[in-house]
Amino acid sequence: MYIVTAEEMYEIDRYAIEKGGIAGKLLMENAGSQVAHQIKKAYDINQRIAIVVGSGNNGGDGFVIARYLVDYGFDVTLFQLVADEKIKGDAAYHKELWLNQSDKLELVTESNQLKDRLIAYHLVVDAILGIGVSGEIREPIRGMIEVINQLDLTRISVDIPSGLPANDGEDVDIAVKADQTYIIEAPKVSTFCEPTSNYYGNWDIVKIGIPTSAYLDVASRRWRTTSDVQASFPNRGTYAHKGSNGRGVIIGAQPTMPGSVLLSSRAALRSGAGLITVATLKENISIIANGCVEATYHVLPNLIDRLSDKDLKAFDQFDAIAVGMGMGRAKSELLSSLIENLDKPVVIDADGLYHLKTFLDQKAEKRANLIITPHYGEMAMLSNLPVSEIKKAPFEVSKQFAIKHNLYIVLKGKNTIITTPNGTQMVSNQGNPGLAKGGTGDVLSGILLTMIMQHPSILEALANGSYIHGMAADLLIDLKQHTEIDLLATDVIEGLSQVFRTLS
Known about the structure:
Shape: elongated
Number of helices: 20
Strand order of the largest sheet: 1-9-18-17-16-15-14-13-10-11-12
Largest sheet: 11 strands, mixed
Number of domains: 2
Number of strands: 18
Low-confidence stretches: none
CATH architecture of the largest domain: 3-Layer(aba) Sandwich
Strand content: 15-25%
């Protein structure tokens, strides 16, 4: 499933009309009929519905929705918030079809008028403004949106809550706070940005017949669905052995933080790695071995000095490396020596990100297999941007950073955004607030390590790893084995087996 900006969606619509031969009137008919069908399935037919329409395609969708809902038996009234001359093109055509069927169309030009009308309704369908919004919302529409937000009724938005920008990096002036949004054809970028996602409420996607070919040269972002994961997840061959399932090494853990690499190693093994070695200080080994008897160990004299030739030769035997968990932030040359000397996929997390920053601007051409996994605070540290700016524009910030430094980014959050060195992006939106605990990032690093060793594509590996990490937490809550309060990182590891059963 593609994720698009407003500009990309316009181009996709143009392609469907000009090259796909699908008339704009038909696309509008498809959109409105599909939204109406969803409303029919979800809401009581005895509830009175008000549909508020503006100009443009969004308003045109509203006229179509009204026709179909009346056919389904709903009591529907349309409120037009703009002058008649502003209803043009395909929207005007569908307005005429509505008027051929019903006289329930009122022109409302002031917010207090709208408030008086809407009091009598249970549901309001918001088809006022579409995806082209940017900047300040002018009156009288601004006041209309305020009224819709203030009244005690269910708010259903069409494609996007009116007033909300479709793209990231833009400020929200005022927007409808929807209870439900029916997104037309493809989710917009703002669906997955923290400052804007809550405006959508619950959301579902309705397809309107745009061919897949319309997206291919336009969109560079995708939303990871369960079917995508199932189609790309590696199967174990009948003659699989330890080596064919991946040999990985996890490097880190000061004596005060042995649990970090313990969690990573257990997660890597539970995710299906064939062999996992933990490279750490001697005093950590008995503690970690007590919690992960399946791992083997490599003793490091410290986590500060450059790796010796002996250590580098040992690590060169592995398929991929994860480093940084519990490493500490004292000045260290371990990471730089690792990256300079080994041509392996390297997952860098936690304290490793702080060490990476010291040489981030050097030798970027050598980093095509480097994967960083920051949360928003760590991304702010790496990019020298405030957290608020990253949250507002996570797609663009990640893209520019990944291209500049020639690396992969897994920007962790409710909507985890994965970006490749060429700017291609995927989103995994599994997971819940139960993951907001220490150790869950260490678990994700272990899972990603295994996925990288087992997938031919690093992007697919990171997307699938993020999915199963979040889905493990979701299943544990959905199956009532845990709550968002008591869920621990160790529980997520144990929940992985349930995820794998759903993928088989």
